[in-house]
């Protein structure tokens, strides 16, 4: 075994008391390293100020979820479910293609067309709400619950509580820190059915700069079902249009 420090001083003349400081020296060195590390961390934080992400790190694409709902919905002809329908939610392209239902060609077109173009040949939300299915909407809303609570407590999560959101002023739910974009939007808008319909089609397009990291609900029926469900989240649901 090697000599234990302090037991066999290299220099016999060296005072024993000094050698007994060896553990303290080691401790001191460790602390010094820690202090330097903290200092570097602090200084680098000053130099490289942290910035909020301008664009969200991830965007939830919901086309996968409605595919499931649509597959369960009564389809005119028993269309063989696209094998892609069971693809993981991440496979957005596949999911869009699998946006199951009646006529695959029309849906491809609808999926590919920009929201504005698609909106023009879509029945107005007032009409679609007449045949909307609240239960299907509740199912489709599962994808929202990652960020929103629908409870009547109005609790906020990543996004504001959505209880009684219909006919509310955008950006006004108590206790939620909205983006400036959403608050500005609220100065000139109300969450009526039509506004919700457009917003939920493509949130980023309708309210540029808002911080809802969500790609949108592309299928008009899915949006109608969702909005019918949102309407039900109230002690006094707003009248249908
Ligand atoms: C990834 C998280 C996330 C998902 C998923 C999400 N949202 Fe949001 N949502 C937000 C955030 C954050 C805001 C606040 C936006 C802002 O302040 O710019 C918001 C705002 C809203 C608003 C405006 C509310 C108000 O008080 O003005 C509505 C309506 C809304 N979301 C509906 C939905 C619906 C319906 C879904 C599901 C189809 C959904 N959201 C999915 C995060 C999300």
TrEMBL record:
Residues 132-234 form the Cytochrome c domain. It comes from Pleomorphomonas diazotrophica. The keyword Lipoprotein does not apply. One of its GO terms (molecular function) is metal ion binding. Residues 75-102 are annotated as: Disordered. The lineage of its organism: Bacteria, Pseudomonadati, Pseudomonadota, Alphaproteobacteria, Hyphomicrobiales. It comes from the Bacteria. This is Cytochrome c family protein. The chain crosses the membrane at residues 26-44. Keywords: Electron transport, Heme, Iron, Membrane, Metal-binding, Transmembrane, Transmembrane helix, Transport. Pfam families: Cytochrom_C. InterPro entries: Cyt_c-like_dom (IPR009056), Cyt_c-like_dom_sf (IPR036909), Cyt_c_1A/1B (IPR002327).
């Amino acid at each position: 075994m090697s000599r234990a420090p302090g037991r066999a001083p290299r220099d016999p003349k060296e005072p024993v008391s000094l050698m007994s400081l060896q553990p303290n020296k080691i401790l001191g060195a460790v602390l010094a390293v820690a202090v330097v590390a903290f200092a570097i961390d602090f200084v680098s934080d000053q130099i490289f100020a942290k910035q909020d992400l301008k664009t969200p790190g991830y965007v939830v694409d919901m086309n996968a979820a409605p595919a499931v709902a649509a597959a369960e919905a009564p389809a005119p002809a028993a269309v063989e479910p696209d094998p892609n329908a069971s693809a993981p939610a991440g496979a957005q392209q596949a999911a869009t293609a699998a946006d199951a239902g009646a006529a695959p060609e029309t849906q491809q077109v609808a999926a590919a067309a920009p929201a504005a173009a698609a909106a023009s040949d879509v029945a107005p939300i007032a009409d679609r709400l007449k045949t909307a299915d609240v239960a299907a909407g509740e199912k489709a809303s599962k994808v929202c619950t990652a960020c929103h609570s629908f409870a009547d407590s109005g609790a906020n999560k990543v996004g504001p509580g959505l209880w009684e959101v219909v006919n509310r002023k955008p950006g006004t739910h108590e206790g939620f820190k909205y983006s400036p974009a959403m608050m500005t939007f609220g100065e000139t808008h109300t969450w009526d059915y039509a506004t919700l319909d457009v917003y939920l089609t493509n949130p980023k397009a309708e309210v540029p700069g808002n911080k809802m990291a969500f790609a949108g609900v592309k299928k008009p029926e899915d949006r109608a079902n969702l909005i019918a469900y949102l309407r039900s989240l109230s002690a006094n649901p707003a009248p249908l249009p």
